[in-house]
Amino acid sequence: MVDREPLTIEVLGGSGTQPAILDRVTGGTVDLNEAKRIGRHLVSITEGTPKAFRVLGQAHQLLFEWHVANEPNH
Fold this sequence. Notes:
Blueprint: E1 8-13, E2 20-26, H1 32-45, E3 50-56, E4 62-67
Antiparallel strand pairs: 1-2, 1-3, 3-4
């Protein structure tokens, strides 16, 4: 069985070219689909004005990024 690396989920807010990290969960899951579900949930409960979330691998490489503006009802 192949060991999978824990993922980091960051909720992003702010404006400009450098987003502010409003919340971060490190090592909450090793599954990308579960990380996406957790990220969407974090966006819905994070204080401030979250604009996106991203999923990072162990070496901080970007695996996935989602923006609130991508939702059809926004």
